[in-house]
Amino acid sequence: MNLLFEFITAMVATMGFSLLFNVGKRDLPVCGLIGAIAWVIYKASMIYYASPILGCLFAAASVGITSFIASRVMKNASTVYIIPGIVPMVPGINVFNTMMAIQDGDMAKAADLGIEMLCMAGAIAIGLLIVESFTVFVKTSVLNKIKVKKRI
What is the pLDDT confidence band of residue 92, given thresholds at 50, 70 and 90? Predict the structure, then answer.
């Protein structure tokens, strides 16, 4: 029940950020669904692996895959779905806790939280990069095969 509530909350939050990014009305539910799926994957990987960094990596990869599919189905740019889709994973609470630790003078805790936050942000970027590289590779290899067949 708790995961269902988090799924719905992540969907609504992603749709809210989609409005801030001027996403079209027909794309709002798709953006919300992508963000909610990413959040569930993040939470599931936190249960199984207990690592927010791996959770961000897997969730970002799911955002990349679902955004690629949605962009083809909806005939829109994939960034329309990627940007709002990563919003639920942004490590905002880690930034806040890092700043609070700095304010309290606990530099060891601030360093730990800051490094974890940077690793989470890097995992988001790497997850998206892996999926994007794979899709570009597939596109180019498929296009090269089609060109070769046309010449023969």
Answer: confident
